[in-house]
Design a protein that fits this description.
Largest sheet: 2 strands, antiparallel
Number of helices: 3
CATH superfamily: Winged helix-like DNA-binding domain superfamily/Winged helix DNA-binding domain
Shape: globular
Number of domains: 1
Order of helices and strands: EEHHHEE
Distance between the termini: 22 Å
Oligomer: single chain
CATH topology: Arc Repressor Mutant, subunit A
Radius of gyration: 12 Å
Number of strands: 4
């Protein structure tokens, strides 16, 4: 996979998580939705695994992982991949 001109390597989990974001661009997804769709219903309350996976994905995708533009946290609501601005 490529991020701009840089090749990046994603784990299977990171790839599934990224797919969820890309299939829901512009929509806020809560933790339970992401956990259930990526890991399965038995993980719906395991937010720590989600936080770690999002942090790793941001490290690979974002120019500045501490000020993300591609995977944004909406406090109290969930996560969002905003549409790309032209």
């Amino acid at each position: 996979m490529w991020c701009g001109e840089n090749p990046i390597s994603l784990s299977a989990t990171e790839y599934r998580l990224l797919l969820q974001f890309t299939h829901n661009i512009g929509n806020i997804m809560n933790s339970e939705e992401l956990l259930t769709s990526v890991w399965g219903p038995e993980y719906k309350n395991d937010k720590e695994i989600l936080w770690v996976s999002i942090a790793r994905l941001r490290q690979k995708l974002e120019e500045n992982a501490h000020d993300p533009k591609h995977i944004v946290t909406r406090s109290g609501l969930g996560y969002l991949m905003p549409p790309i601005e032209s």
